[in-house]
Structures
1.
Amino acid sequence: MPRVYLGLGSNLEDRRNNLLSAIGLLAQIEGVVVKDCSSIYETDPLGYLDQPAFLNMVVEIETSLPPLDLLDRCQEIERKLGRKPTVRWGPRTIDLDLLLYGEEKYEGERLTIPHPRLTERAFVVIPLQELGLDSLPGLGMATRELGEKLQRSQRIYLHTPKSEVKCLCWAVFSGSCTGK
Ligand code: X6L
Ligand code: MG
Ligand code: MG
């Protein structure tokens, strides 16, 4: 089964709870197993600047669902968690983006994989590096190097360390909360 990476973001209401709820709902999907998660980071908004700061993280899953079915399930979760249509790049209770789907490339009306602007965003690159991705598709640079470069212009703060996120999601990761 392919390793799939999802980018999660929230900048409205109870931001951290929105991220954790999304992980809980992902874990309930038939054909999805949640394997790992990054720390949660607080990040300044990009694209549309006049909105609250985001919490961002990346989640690793294994899935038997093809990309478009997974996208449908992700958009269902966005609706369930109260995401309202608004201006482009505007505030949202939750955003789930399909970043990488194994080694696959896909280009369609609704979806492009790998995510086309993946490598421009510290809030995606740094969590991916934390999850052990040392290289990213179509890039002549190590993930860590790219992360360091992006961090010079994009503010990103550790908000909740990975070990704590896993404890907060104990039902999903079902391990001890005392170790890493
Ligand atoms: C120039 C032009 C520079 C556009 C950047 C970057 C646009 C990112 C959109 C850009 C540009 C985006 C999040 C966000 C959004 C998020 C943070 C987007 C799409 N989502 N900012 N902005 N976290 N920090 O999850 O990512 S809207
Ligand atoms: Mg997004
Ligand atoms: Mg999105």
2.
Amino acid sequence: METIISTIDKNNIDESIILSAGQILKDGGLVAFPTETVYGLGANALDEEAAKKTYAAKGRPSDNPLIVHIAELKALEAIVAEVPDLTEKIAKRFWPGPLTMIFKKSQIVPYGTTGGLDTVAVRMPSDKIARELILAAGGYVSAPSANTSGRPSPTTAQHVKDDLDGKIEMILDGGSVEIGLESTILDMTVTPPMILRPGAITADMLEEEIGEVAVDQTLLDSSSTQRPKAPGMKYRHYAPDAKLTIVEGTLKEEILAIRQLAYEAYLQGRQVGIIATNESEQYYSHGIVKNIGTRENEKTIARNLYSVLRDFNEEDISEIYSESFAVQGIGNAIMNRLEKAAGHIRIKAAPIVEKQKYRRIVFVSQSDTSRGPVAAELLRNEKLKQEYVIESRGMVVLFPEPVNQKAEAIMKSGKLTLQNHVSKAFSEEELKDDTLVLTFEQNQKEKIVSEYNVTENVYSINEFLDDDTEIPNPYGQPLTAYGEFYEMMKALTKKLVDKLNSFTEGGK
Ligand code: AMP
Ligand code: MG
């Protein structure tokens, strides 16, 4: 079948398109359309055969019920057996909007639509195109998300096309959706009403309106083997092709752990995907990093989540790591979807980070124009098991200078360069818990220790390696002296690598 794709402007809706889309639905066909949550795959909700087509197009298990979309409150009565007391209050506040309520169904709703259940899920969307389409179709449009079952829900018409082109009659392209996550589902058949799926309407918002609401416990405990009450919640959902793992800790720990995981993959010649935020993006140096939004406004994260998950399918990666988000407000829905996309695979950041005795190494020489920069560059070119920031500083640097020309000549012979190096003075700033300071001379170490009154993390290279090789200072000497220093430093670098790697393996 050829899928018609029609672009509609929300602010200037072309009625003829709505009418023809409505007719397709009345005739038992399928039309994908935008809602404020995600794109829906519409069918006539009162037509058993249309429901079957919906399941077939999505490849969705038929025990996974559809949500019936209405455009007017008065439409509710005909499809539910009874209207519980709180309904009106909730509808008044949250409809139209991203909230689905579950009621006992009436006779006219076919079991095909409800996945065989005696209850029916109903929502009144706020999107203008959705509302006009529902009215044009006769008032009752069943609409699951318009994606292939198991994949991330569609937040653009292109996502729908990627999944369903050729399988449905029509796609209405109304641009990107506003919220990006599916509706909150609230079961009205129990007292107090129970949230079966978190969404943009949070438990707090509902409680403010109606007092106590319950939350399906299986949602809170990801290790639960109990069946969730919303049938759809039991399937792996929203999943990208690559294996997704959620990394948990403080934001700093998460960044450090993901950096390490990305670095380990890089050592093996692989790239990982990373789900990062505005706040963290800059800290990743390996891997394919996608910015999902800002932590200062989690709505941006909700809106981008599915399209980021989909975008990763275009990348050559076998694994994705994601930071975690606070389980508050819409963060609850974000983590719920992320966990389902990850098939509940989570790891703790702390054990990875705790193995990192140091994260930065600073070589300190006299002027930071020869020995320090050479040592730093040699170490940077080693495949250490952990990623370090490696730098050099000088005890006496009055103004920034480029590297000594003889040092550069020797580096060139080893196919390295220090062309971009500029000398910098050592300062108290280098004395941090995660920074290893290595001096070339014993007296440099002692000077730092006494001047800044430090007790830890500052060593001469000899001390640190427990090695008594005398490291010559080639300054002012012929090129051969630089060559000798370079060879010696190469040998010491190997020892440094072993020592640093022993920390990563958990040694001391
Ligand atoms: P989707 O349309 O893709 O957002 O999926 C609709 C989801 O709503 C289903 O997967 C179910 O989890 C839930 N749902 C729909 N109808 C019912 C119902 N009668 N009882 C419980 N959950 C329902
Ligand atoms: Mg869905």
3.
Amino acid sequence: MGLVVQKYGGSSVADAEGIKRVAKRIVDAKKNGHQVVVVVSAMGDTTDELIDLAEQVSPIPAGREFDMLLTAGERISMALLAMAIKNLGHEAQSFTGSQAGVITDSVHNKARIIDVTPGRIRTSVDEGNIAIVAGFQGVSQDKKDITTLGRGGSDTTAVALAAALDADVCEIYTDVDGVFTADPRVVKKARKIDWISFEDMLELASSGSKVLLHRCVEYARRYNIPIHVRSSFSGLQGTWVSNEPIQQGDQKVEQAIISGVAHDTSEAKITVVGVPDKPGEAAVIFRAIANAEINIDMVVQNVSAASTGLTDISFTLPKTEGRKAIDALEKAKTAIGFESLRYDDQIGKISLVGAGMKTNPGVTAGFFEALSDAGVNIELISTSEIRISVVTRADDVNEAVRAVHSAFGLDSDSDEAVVYGGTGR
Ligand code: ADP
Ligand code: ASP
Ligand code: MG
């Protein structure tokens, strides 16, 4: 029996009862002969509550202090979980990200893992302990400051530790039975996926399916760590995310043409109005945004009006970066020479994902027809080889997701999509 890494999300450890339930599951894995390393998130909505608190004290909190605050959430759950396991008669030790050897760059609030040196974790499990590691946090290589990996970052901690410890599998325990063809909170008839390739999962995750974080999937693909996403509330098999299809009976699970529909309401749209239509303008705009360390998503440039020689450039970005982006553009106003800026955070994005798109004509047409039948107006469009995304009004998103899900025959016959916990926040 080898080593397993299990990650429990916030909804799985939302209260004392949840922590005790999870402790039993962990002990069962240990009793089955595995060495067990557990990565745990903050309890319930603790991280959101800490963010709210910080914003009451300071509208733009300093990155270093913000990270110090947020990592407190995972410290609480890791210590409580270790206590609950000891109470069941098993040895457990908790470790902060820094103690576990999670080394990051120094970009506060969205640090990247650059190395994992899990010596203490290895020693702890070799001595017979269950090691509990605080997710979502690390320590910066240069300044030795505490960092966080961005929202949902515990998924990445789990996969990074699994890679560094050469684990057999990384199990991600959450509040639904696996990865579904759409968010089960929005589509009751969403279908559980038995196996999905890293490629399609990466695209779903970066399009907003927060059941797995895209950086975690990226990491798993790079080190070829199979992920098993499953519920901590049921004993069901979940979804395997890996390179090679899993075996079911004497057959391999087939790659679906369409893996699923993702949606995202965490982005905003900025329109730079009245930009001179000449070479180099877009370069200056996006250099200003890049210098502010902001990642953007979609970009469109309108045709310029012949009479004025001016055009508009729109792009989407995380809402949390909206203010920073506006400030950066205002500062570069003379260099760019635009007329005004428009900020719109009432948008949503819907994406259809599937490797089969490459070889099946008509997917794009079917997608637009479904949106049109649902009366949804499209504001921006972007595509990759295996994804098509549109931006709409935020109010239209749920309806649009359901319409596209049905139109592509993804609805299941039974209402199998159970949501066991969490607030969906
Ligand atoms: P955790 O606290 O365990 O990390 P998250 O809230 O981050 O849980 O992720 C689980 C949630 O992801 C589910 O409750 C569900 O609402 C949402 N979700 C979005 N898209 C999907 C999908 N395609 N399949 C399953 N869950 C999804
Ligand atoms: N607690 C952090 C968050 O809510 C990290 C995580 O749960 O993965 O984003
Ligand atoms: Mg999560």
